[in-house]
Amino acid sequence: MKKRILTSAIPSHVGERICISGWLQSLRQMGGITFLILRDGWGTIQAVTEHAQELAPLTEGQAGLESLLTIEGLVVSEPQAPGGVELHELHIEVVLPIQEIPPLSLNKRKISANIATLLDHAVIANRHPTRRAIFRLSAGVMASFRQTLSERHFTEIQTPKIVAASTESGANVFELDYFGRPAFLAQSPQFYKQIMVGVFERVFEVGPVFRAEKHDTTRHINEYVSLDAEMGFIEDHTTIMALLRTVLAAILAHLTENYAAELTLLGAQMPQVPEVIPQIHFADAQELIYQLHRVDVRGEPDLSPQDERWLGEWAQQEFGSAFLYVTGYPMRKRPFYTHPDPQRPEYSNSFDLLFRGIELVTGGQRLHRYDAYLAALQQAQLPIEPFEYYLEAFKYGMPAHGGFAIGSERLLMQLLGIPNVKLTTTFPRDLNRLVP
Amino acid sequence: MKKRILTSAIPSHVGERICISGWLQSLRQMGGITFLILRDGWGTIQAVTEHAQELAPLTEGQAGLESLLTIEGLVVSEPQAPGGVELHELHIEVVLPIQEIPPLSLNKRKISANIATLLDHAVIANRHPTRRAIFRLSAGVMASFRQTLSERHFTEIQTPKIVAASTESGANVFELDYFGRPAFLAQSPQFYKQIMVGVFERVFEVGPVFRAEKHDTTRHINEYVSLDAEMGFIEDHTTIMALLRTVLAAILAHLTENYAAELTLLGAQMPQVPEVIPQIHFADAQELIYQLHRVDVRGEPDLSPQDERWLGEWAQQEFGSAFLYVTGYPMRKRPFYTHPDPQRPEYSNSFDLLFRGIELVTGGQRLHRYDAYLAALQQAQLPIEPFEYYLEAFKYGMPAHGGFAIGSERLLMQLLGIPNVKLTTTFPRDLNRLVP
User: Which residues lie within the region annotated Aspartate (chains A, B) (predicted)?
Assistant: First the structure.
């Protein structure tokens, strides 16, 4: 056999005999013609023959679907074939025969299995081209996030996931046994990324975060990948909002440029990111909902999923924007490190970014004066002791700073119109699911 | 005040008045001249004045070390100044005054604090230029690892850190409460990266791993960043060894090209990576130790730290190489998924890479046939049930594959000659340390 090439390289070898290896994704006969689809790590190729003896190794080797094959063949241009090329004059070698029937079908355009079957058998389901496309896009999102921030002088950090005190609140944390002492899984790198603003001013992290939320919804998972950024010497939260706009636009442009096949396969509708994303103050948003829908949520401390959907629709109709900033969430529902709005101290210098009517990003300005932290902890009736290490950063000088956290899986869910966030990650963790 | 520029941009503004912001790192008088060092997220700049009134804002604002300042000044070329430029004709503004004396000195060339003080106050110690240099190099290692593998058609993945079964063994795992069920923190992404070879063939992951090792040594931490790669359709473990050589050479070249200042500051001795890294079989290594040192370790199932040091010295003397592959570790000490050497089945198709006499990377070929896994689990007296999800990958066809895991912190420790691995990470976790 010749040296193997990847399926992605085949189109540049028309007229040559080449060798490929991969999984037998489908095998069907039409009249006297047999069509094989071979899948490798990057794509698929159709191999075609009318000669039974070319297929003999499959029969002799009892090689069913998902068998590993090496096929040598002639690359022929064929406009009707998927990808515009196919292989003729086949020489097939069975590398590893499989007789077992896969738990779900990998050779249909869409996976027909229900979500439970798909997730139970994610190990195999993830081989399906539509699943692979999602995870490739996920890699593209991470790569673009890092590149965009690196170009803007941010330093990548990795911070501990086993922590002594929870960042956000006492609830919703996973507890673990740390050599006989209680410890927790980090709900976010919030404290550490702030501390590292004191070191590098501008930092980002891509890593897992853990939320022990007991409700099982279509938009929550218990472990997800957070795209975190934090920067110092800001004006206020609007500096962060401008940065986030840049990052999102860069990610979407990167996907459009480099992942056209995946986006087409998944039927993605790519949104435009406006030069300036429209924004509305929290209080005005509640007033607007009252005016438009006659539902009175004024005075509520937070927005409900329904509120977010209404606001998303409004942003689309009013500004043609899939994105909407809601600013100034009430201080009483934001964590203690949140910076108040100097003009209206009951509201905060914080924001959520809604994307197609769902919260995608939370961010804002943080407190940066040591005294302000002491007061905020007292106000929140939290003890100082567990936070002393964190407070040290502020004791020795921190600039005005802020940041944001993008839920990587939610971004893909909304971008691709996937109905359940669990489907955007390779091996989701939820209330009932610890395997695969 | 003018618009702020970063210290890294100052050398291109000689003769201009500019504005910088940052932390007051040092302040000292010599004769009638006062020297200030201001530090921002990227570097430092010396500001010099003979005029007391230029310094008046510091006195009036009671601004001690680590105060946040904005300084406007004229950029003057001065060969004797650190970096070759300094600021004159100062206009100083105190952004945030600090009176508290920092718990350790940030304005000496080296940190004089002992390791316990340094780690207890890592929040502040990490601001020291030598600490920053380490973490910047860490970011460079991650970036180069990702880039090198992406160019070679690897896909980045993120896999779960909360897992149902431990990968390597029952020992040394952190247990946590997952909604009333026991779960564990992943000791490595081993199972998941193998499974994903069935999806993308070539995958990598940069992420935290957790080891509940109860011994407190200078080369162990309980949470670290693992640089993992895994690929399919390999010949055997030598395919992986060649890939690892490429990756290491790329990382070192990347650091040399892009982090010269950091490497100089830390006094790093950059090693050459030989075109072909010398290798020795495990059994031959034990024989060699006996011949050279008259210590008989033949028949031991593993190498001790002293054995590794001896082998490192030998590789340096014999081949002038800081790197040495030890291949063929005995099967009985390797995890159950290890592929045996077909010629000598008591030894494995696995390797360790020693760097300057310490194990830096572990890797090898894995089993890939379903039947081989069933036999290996039985041999290891492990039950099948907890591994069923993992075995599904092999049931439905996996190619010959293998991979490696580089300990990111160990790489920096050995590269920089740092005596304790805890010093290579921002906020280390050890037997006694959960904060900061």
Answer: 190-193
pLDDT beneath 70: ranges in chain A: 166-170
Contact B280, B328 (CB under 8 A): no
Residue B86's beta-bridge partner residues?
Answer: B46, B76
Are B413 and B424 within 8 A, CB to CB?
yes
Q: First CA to last CA across chain A, in angstroms?
A: 37
The DSSP bridge pattern shows strands A323-327 and A162-163 to be: unpaired
Q: Where are the domains of chain A?
A: 7-96, 124-424
Which residues in chain B are closer than 8 Å to A192, comparing Cβ atoms?
Answer: 426-427
Q: Chain B: nearest CA to A71, how far in angstroms?
A: 14
Closest listed residue to residue A278, CA positions, set A312, A310, A227: A312
B7-96: which CATH architecture? Beta Barrel (2.40)
**A410 annotated ligand-binding residue:** yes
pLDDT reported for residue B293:
97
Please classify residue A9 by burial: count the beta carbons closer than 10 Å to its beta carbon, then call 0-12 exposed, 13-18 middle and 19+ buried.
Answer: middle
Put simply, the answer to whether B95 touches A4 (Cβ < 8 Å) is: no
The string of DSSP letters for B271-330 reads: PP--SS--EEEHHHHHHHHHHHH----TT-SS--HHHHHHHHHHHHHHH--SEEEEE--B
Does A212 appear as a known binding residue?
yes
CB A379 within 8 A of CB A334: no
Distance from C-alpha of A24 to C-alpha of B283, rounded to nearest angstrom: 41
The CATH number of the structural domain formed by A124-424 is: 3.30.930.10
B-contacting residues in A 231-250 (Cβ below 8 Å): 232-233
Tell me: is residue A359 an annotated ligand-binding position: yes
Task: Report the distance separating Cα B409 and Cα B422, nearest Å.
Answer: 8
Quote the pLDDT of residue A268: 97
Ranges of chain B with pLDDT below 70: 166-170
User: What sign has the CA pseudo-torsion B98, B99, B105, B107?
Assistant: positive
User: According to the annotation, is A409 in a ligand binding site?
Assistant: yes
Search chain A and give the residue with CA nearest B426. A159
E-assigned strand segments in A179-250: 181-185, 202-210, 223-232
Taking contacts as CB-CB distances below 8 angstroms, the residues of chain A near B103 are 392
Closest-CA residue to B162 (of A143, A228, A175, A409)? A175
Give yes or no for a cis peptide into B274 (omega within 30° of 0): no
Query: What sections of A300-404 are H helices per DSSP?
Result: 305-319, 370-379, 388-395
Question: Which residue of A20, A71, A100, A200 is the best one to mutate when testing the B interface, meaning the one whose CB has the most B CBs within 10 A?
Answer: A200
Task: Give the residue carrying structure tokens 């101290």.
Answer: A345
Which residue, among A141, A103, A145, has the nearest Cα to A262 in the 3D structure? A141
- Tell if the CB–CB gap between B398 and A179 is shorter than 8 Å: no
Q: What is the Cα–Cα distance from B167 to B110, expressed in whole angstroms?
A: 41
Report the topology of domain B129-424.
BirA Bifunctional Protein; domain 2 (3.30.930)
Which residues in chain B touch residue A117, judged by CB atoms under 8 angstroms apart?
A: none
Give which of A38, A157, A199 to mutate to test B binding, by max B Cβ within 10 Å.
Answer: A199
CB B208 within 8 A of CB B236: no
Dihedral Cα A70, A76, A78, A83, nearest 10 deg: 50
The proportion of chain B whose per-residue pLDDT surpasses 70, expressed as a percent, equals: 99
CB contact under 8 A, B126 and A196: yes
Name residues whose C-beta falls within 8 Å of residue A265's C-beta, 6 or more positions apart in sequence: A129, A130, A133
Q: Do domains B7-96 and B129-424 have the same CATH topology?
A: no
Question: What is the number of CB-based contacts under 8 A between chain A and chain B?
Answer: 240
According to the annotation, is A407 in a ligand binding site?
yes
pLDDT tens for residues B154-177?
999 999 999 997 665 567 899 999
Tokens of B133: 């240099």
* CB < 8 Å from A in window 44-103 of B: 66-68, 95-96, 98, 100, 102-103
